Amino acid sequence: MVMAILGINTSGFHSSACLIVDGEIKCAITEERISRVKRDKNFPLKSIDYCCRTAGISEDEITDIYIGWNPACYMYKSDNTLNEALKDRGKIAYLSMNELSIAKQEQITSIRQSIESKSGSWDIHFVNHHEAHLSNSFVSSNFTEADFIIADGFGENTTGMCGSVSANSINVLSEFKFPHSLGSFYATFTEFLGFKPNGDEWKVMALASLGDPEKYYSKIKSLVKVSDIGIELDLSYFEYYLFFTEHYYSAKFVEQFGQPVCGLDGLTQYHYDLVAALQKVSEDVIAELLTNLHAKTGSNNLVVSGGFFMNSVMNGKLVNMTPYSSIYIGGSPDDSGISIGAALYGLVYDKKHNLRMDLSKQNYFGREYNTDEIIRELDKRKISYNIVKDVELYAARKISERNVVGWFQGKSEFGQRALGNRSILADPTCDKIKDIVNASIKYREGFRPFAPSVLEESQSKYFDNDQDSYFMEKVFMFKEGVRDKLPGVVHFDGTGRLQTVSKEQNPRYHRLIQECGKIYGFDIVLNTSFNINGMPLVESPADAINCFFQSGMDYLIMENVVVKKC
Predict the structure, then answer these.
(1) In DSSP terms, which residues pair with 164 in a beta bridge?
(2) Which residues of the chain have pLDDT under 50?
(3) Which residues, at least 6 apart from 293, have a Cβ–Cβ distance to it below 8 Å?
(4) What is the pLDDT of residue 334?
(5) 513 Cβ partners below 8 Å, 6+ apart?
(6) Shortest CA distance to 472 belongs to which of 490, 450, 443?
């Protein structure tokens, strides 16, 4: 009998689904990639259907469903009444569960449900949010044991945790209790600067490179205190936990840091210095927590997860600023990865499946579209195209001629970062390319950097670091001798968000970069996600065509099919 496990994220951020069949991740996708609604929060019904069709199984073959949010934390009181349940008798299920949980008169730790029909049944399990984050990272790391730190905006009633983990057990040594949240701490400054909290934090991270972190370090550091392996915020500066208030920051915050910014024109050097201090405080808090954790365990291995660790600048410094020699982050530490983590938690910790994954270097968990499907979509729209034999060499030549290329190949990547299958590519040696791509293709702020995709065997030539970064999850310093030669991918402070490209994991993308290196002398290509501002990453050929004609890209290459703008 097939063991088919479905993982679901319904946390309110990046709804997603993941399907594991007989111990292998067969498919995973975020709902926004299919619905085309950015940060879609709806229940991931489209994702579930997509995963089943891609894996070639019916929904009736699913045996277990793991959801990455545990309602057991909320069972101490009931919001339902019998009168409401009698008006809508479907609510009897919730009323009964609430009331029986209260009658138990002790903390409820887990809830399980089942749904049965003529065609079969599903056993439904609820996983603690931060344990799903942890499982996503640890099970993919190939460690037999490790310490962990999880940090985000919030889970059920916590905002993160520290401890140690093995394939058999999770040992939580400390939980960060809501509302003391590192994710919301950072998000408050995001909103203060005029950006969207819990969505635009990478913009703040990019701006931090323009400031002096020492100027306002002490003012910001006073807002957060580390106690052993716990954190505590001065809540008088924050109101994100008062859900009826308008802003994340309080009147005291405004009194301390000035009036909130309205629009990019309102940003000054003061704000750059402020966020530079924010970034450094965030890094120092994590370093202190991890130093204290290591003192308790002595482990050399560390896994991290949670939306707070989408901070690639901090991630690139973790090895140097902590006692850990081996650190794994993974491709989707944010809530999109909860579906994968919930499914892996179910497989390893609930089903006790002895899973030994290799170190994960890729997350191509979507479906592949063949040439016939691509051509049908182009023919339907009466769009001219050419078929090219050596598509990698062709693309490299077009990129070296200063064209911007939409690159659509193989299975789609999971999560928020394009890793060479749904990417927009350009020549990093062109001194104007960053402005061109930001202004006429991505339609986004000009200060935001682009990532360098670099061959695995060549990255030591360009970076002052020997760490790999397969998921574009770490920022490193470029070597001085190459910084002025790669203006398209070098940020203001001389750094780049590295994507390590493995020949084994993505031979076509690897070869394209090789051919670029032969032409312009650097085994690097500028890589940004195949979308425009406000649009989810493209998933299908139809999405790619739509995005191509809405932007200033010059060529669209889907498998070996080429579309050129006249």
Answers:
(1) 147, 171
(2) none
(3) 147, 149, 162, 173, 229
(4) 97
(5) 396, 453, 454, 455, 501, 523, 524, 525
(6) 450
179 preceded by a cis bond (ω within 30 of 0): yes
Overall size of the chain counted in residues: 566
Alpha carbon 69 to its chain centroid, in Å, reads 18
pLDDT in tens, 126-135: 999 999 999 9
pLDDT of residue 1: 67
| Predicted local distance difference test score (pLDDT) of residue 243 | 82
CA 492 to chain centre: 24
- Of 421, 452, 339, 326, nearest to 68 (Cα)? 339
CB 476 within 8 A of CB 463: yes
Residues 6+ apart with CB under 8 A from 160: 130, 149, 150, 151, 152, 175, 176, 181, 182, 183, 306, 308
Q: Tell me the angle at which helices 182-192 and 269-297 cross, rounded to the nearest 10 degrees.
A: 180
Q: How far apart are CA 323 and CA 296, in angstroms?
A: 12
**pLDDT of 434:** 92
Q: CA nearest 201: which of 190, 213, 185, 188?
A: 190
**How many Cβ atoms are within 10 Å of 71's Cβ, its own excluded?**
16
Q: CA-to-CA distance for 349 and 353, rounded, in angstroms?
A: 8
Q: Helices then strands (H, E): number in the chain?
A: 19, 22
Give the whole-angstrom CA distance, residue 526 versus residue 399: 10
Report which secondary-structure segment, H or E, holds 557: strand 555-558
139-169 pLDDT tens trace: 999 999 999 999 999 999 999 999 999 999 9
What per-residue confidence (pLDDT) applies to 100? 84
Helix (H) or strand (E) holding 397: helix 391-400
499 - beta bridge partners?
453
Q: Classify the C-alpha dihedral 221-222-227-231 as positive or negative.
A: negative
User: What is the DSSP code string of 282-320?
Assistant: HHHHHHHHHHHHHHHH--SEEEEESGGGG-HHHHTTHHH
> Do strands 64-67 and 4-9 pair parallel, antiparallel, or not at all (unpaired)?
parallel
Q: How far apart are CA 257 and CA 280, in angstroms?
A: 17
Helix axes 391-400, 507-520, angle to 10 degrees: 40
Which run of H or E residues covers position 543? helix 541-550
Whole-structure pTM value = 0.96
Beta-strand pair 451-455/495-501: parallel
Among all chains, which residue has been given the structure tokens 């500066």?
237
Residue 258 CB coordination number (10 Å):
13
pLDDT at 244: 87
- Token duo for residue 393: 């060499």
Task: Give the Cβ contact number of residue 47 at 10 Å.
Answer: 29
Backbone angles phi, psi at 343, to 5 degrees: -65, -45
Per the rule left: phi > 0, alpha: psi between -120 and 50, beta: everything else, 521 is left
Residue 493, judged by CB atoms within 10 A of its CB (0-12, 13-18, 19+), counts as middle
| Residue linked to tokens 């790669």 | 486
What tokens does 86 get? 């009698």
- CA 431, 432, 438, 441: dihedral to nearest 10 degrees? -120
